[in-house]
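Quick start: load a record and inspect it. Here is Phage integrase SAM-like domain-containing protein:
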Amino acid sequence: MIDDSSARSESALDETFERYLQDKGKGRGGDGGNYRRNAVRELERFREWAAGERGDDNWTGIGPDDVDRDPTFAALDEQVFREYARHLAGDRGLKQNTVQTYYAYISAWCGWCVNEGYLEAHYAQRASATAPLPEDDGRKPGDQQAWTPEQRHTLTGYVDEEARTAIEQFTGLPEDVDQLEREQGRYAALRAARDRALICVLAYTAVRVGELLRDPDDPRRRGVRWEEIDLEDGSMHVYRKKQQWDSASLPDPVISPLRNYKRLLDPPTERWPVFPTFDQRTLATLVSEELTDRGLKPAEIDEQRSTYARDLLLAIEEDIQPPSLTTDGARTVLRRITADASIDIDHPKHEYLAPHGGRRGMGEVLVRAFGYTVAARYLDNSEEMVRERYSHIEAGELGDIATEALEEVDGGHVPTDE
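Running the structure step on this input writes:
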């Protein structure tokens, strides 16, 4: 009888990848989620390195030189993971935090392999294995931008003026205007109103963009719908990062833009996405396929589409529900508006006001005004996490206290800028 653990030790590394990713993935079948997308990339990177397909010219992989097969679990030990940590740390194109993040994916897989009987020990977490990794500086890559009050005011002021102008131009059209011109005016007004509502929600609610819009990598995140928004109570039902539905607050600066936008959009049903995509190719395909399913012939579809300035307007009229704007789509919108509003950005990673910057900017406001406990509730985070993320505020306040104490004790003998 063959020992099961011995058989598993001779398994190729990539034989476990799909099962591991299913366990870690989101949604039905474990085929969704950002973690899965990132993990599969790092697992393949590790497999290639282990097989000798990555690294310098002298690196031949972890298996014996005279064996022509993919590396197996029998070849893994803490020295292998130490060498991989050194390989990642030696990549000059990777930041310290990124090296830590990439290694964490492999370490998590290693732990899973121990539980599944492929490995005897969690080699990746041993001190000797992690020693070559650079120290984590405590910052999360790409998550440091925060909209300043001036940036927030400029951005929201710009989209408000753009929406007001577009809506006034549309509603001010004479009754005898050409139908195509009216359609074009309505489309421009809808786009401007949607952008204003989106920017205000990102700027004032501190909701994560992944909770608000569609994430193609996670089927559960299909974008918030009108049925999930209560403009009277000032609340919005969203699928939180903690994998459950919860209510988020809609402060006053958000209510009016949403209400005016909904009145202009006049969605056929409450199940429509609040922020539908305006991508013409996506909508053209959607409309054509739906009308085909309803029994229309190609010539009839072309004729019906030609009567509308944009397929979005046809979708509204025929109740063809479009998909929500994606998280990447929101970044595209913000890039465009940041440039159009001529907002200066001084940030090493982002040349525009990124969506997470709105959340962090609102966090700054709340911590300074009401403290960490209230901010944590609004941000849907633990107070410990909020204190860590906004520790610079407390440090500054403690610095002011220290200055006052020195002035009190030393009689005002404090160095100045003079």
